[in-house]
Amino acid sequence: MIPAVDILEDVPLAPHTTLELGGDARFFLRATDERTVRDALRWAARRGVRVGILGGGSNLVVDDAGFDGLVVEMALRGVEEREEGDRVLVTAAAGEEWDPFVERTVAAGWQGLECLGGIPGRVGATPIQNVGAYGQEVAETITSVRVLDRDTLAFGSLAPQECAFAYRDSYFKRNPERYVVLAVTFALRPDAPPAVRYAELARALEDVEAPSSSTVRETVIALRRRKSMVLDFADENHRSAGSFFTNPVMSADEARRVVDRAVADGLVERAEDVPRWDVGDDRVKLAAGWLVERAGMHKGTRHGRVGISTKHALALVHHGGGTTEELLELAARVEAAVRDRFGVTLQIEPTRW
Q1: Which residues pair with 146 in a beta bridge?
Q2: What pTM did the predictor assign?
Q3: Which is nearest to 315 in space by CA: 295, 330, 337?
Q4: Treating both helix axes as pointing N-terminal to C-terminal, what angle do 213-226 and 98-107 enclose, rounded to 10 degrees?
Q5: Catalytic residue ranges
Q6: 201-241: per-residue pLDDT in tens?
């Protein structure tokens, strides 16, 4: 069982999030092994308190009132590698920092995660959000996710199809009270060519003949840095949860209506000027950042002590001394502007406590 000394009370959560916002956790535990995670759930169940699972806090919005329950910080560490045919299976514990893990795989010459460099957070969060960027997402390489069932307290493993991955979505995200992610196994390919599918990335590499995975990762990080999408404490936009809204996915007819409205309102000269992508099944993805700016919510917009990033219209940032209430008020303003202008309802990406 958990020694009483390990359970802390009234722990500020703001320092555990990249937004640096939010109140205190009533109880807090840092778990460094799987047994401690299970014991923590038992401890909470006996006392009738809810449990929140904390990773790097890079995709989390905590209310000003804090979290009235037990917060378990996932600090499980360790990486294991084994060859299987023409691929390498790499298993990383949930508490491993994501970007150093990506750097490790790229340095080893393994393809599969190179476009996902520079993203803050920990490994355990990646299947929950189906983390993706620059034309690549973790669902492409995940072969299994080790979990703790919160209902039965049994350890187990889920195959990719059981994870129900979708765009920035998964079974874990839709059912947050069911499983705790303990480790993730990725299938990577030695010496395979990197994924250069995203137009912006392809343009940045157009003068590079046969770029390596390492070059792709470095280029992605440089592109992210220009948008204040890497964690840099010298950057005025560093208190952020990254993209605050997901790119909306809708039917082709709905997307056509949005495009027609943009042309009719003189926002673009041609329908082709509205950024959008066919995602199959007669569905189309629009660029949320483009919608936000064309709805009049520009980069650098301020709302009290929070605002829209000066570099990226999808990132809401905290300038210091602010509150979560202010942040959510700004998010509501952005949502309303896009809905009024285009009839599109944006969805917030970060988890909210």
Answers
A1: 157, 183
A2: 0.88
A3: 330
A4: 150
A5: 168, 243, 349
A6: 999 999 898 899 999 999 999 999 988 888 888 889 999 99
